[in-house]
Amino acid sequence: MSEDPQKLKKIAAAAYDYENDSRWADYWSNILIPPHMASRSDVVDHFKRKFYQRYIDPDLVVEAMPSSAQTGSAKPTSSSASSSVANGEARARSAGSTARTSGTSAGSGSNATSLRWDRHTIQFSVNAWVFIVAVLAIFPLVPRSLSNRAYRLSFMGTACSSVYSLYALYGRPRAWTLQAVQVYFQSVIATKDFIYFIYCLTFVTSHLCLKFALIPILCRSLERVAKFLRHNFSRSTLYRKYLEDSCVWVESNNTTLSILSSHAEIGLGWLLIVSLFSWQRNIVQTFMYWQLLKLMYHAPVTAGYHQSVWAKIGRTINPLILRYAPFLNTPVSAIQKWWSR
């Protein structure tokens, strides 16, 4: 399977967990762009790729900012907006070089650093707890009542972690009006935290207990725990002796874990369809989950992995339909058009 190296690098850059990397907060705080552009997801994604190129993978090719992102919706301020974006990139480059030479400096930014440390510590604690509880839910020797309770607690913990992360990164709507809430919603709907919040909400409110659904939760919590340990305990003797190899493996196999999660998420969609023929059917949950799968197919943070899995499914199923059930071509084409919209 020959894939475009840059496409894989872009997928890895989109899937990178920026909020748990303290360097990203420093990088983003040094970018000077107008507030109306800082809230746009395409602008944020552009600077995330620039950050990923600088600190993670220098071989990643980052295209120039699209003209539509520079001009924005206010035409009279297009020149100032584009110059602000350029100034933001220059400021980010100078901030990156300063960070490399000076390292972690104390002074005027000490309060912000302590706040970021508190946020990351809280996220680490919640994700470590979720990982332990999820393992407890999957372990076969655990009593059924305890396993089912751990199953629901895993989703509740991940949902709380996602909401906290969204609040820390995006705050809350500027006003509780329909327009302000809609703008806020559009800025967070394609983020991984929002997707996982809806994912957890779909299963924690259902009486159907699918332990298979814990695979993406385990992968997510494992990635975040390993990243926090590597960044904050790399000098600890205990970490080097018992945890370093495992954490290095997790961080070097983020793509593998994301592919595993996407396979599990799509497999769950088919399991929910099968469950419609049982006494545990839940039509509302199935409908909501397939809407979520559609969002995962289009959201930049998950699109690469989900589109790859669906392409494999298409290569397997389409020849069988053409050969044994050609009458299904019309409904399948209609479903594909709806899915691609």
Automatic annotation (TrEMBL):
GO biological process, one term: endoplasmic reticulum tubular network organization
InterPro entries: PER33/POM33_regulator, TMEM33/Pom33
Cell location: Membrane
Alphabetical UniProt keywords: Membrane, Transmembrane, Transmembrane helix
Short name of one Pfam family: TMEM33_Pom33
GO CC annotations, alphabetized: endoplasmic reticulum; membrane
Membrane-protein topology: Multi-pass membrane protein
Record has Phosphoprotein as a keyword: no
Biased composition (Low complexity): 73-86, 93-112
Residue ranges of the region described as Disordered: 67-112
Membrane-spanning ranges: 124-143, 149-170, 194-218, 259-279
Highest taxon of source: Eukaryota
PANTHER family registered for this protein in UniProt: TRANSMEMBRANE PROTEIN 33
Similarity remark: Belongs to the PER33/POM33 family.
Protein name, entry field: Transmembrane protein 33 homolog
Annotated source species: Gossypium stocksii
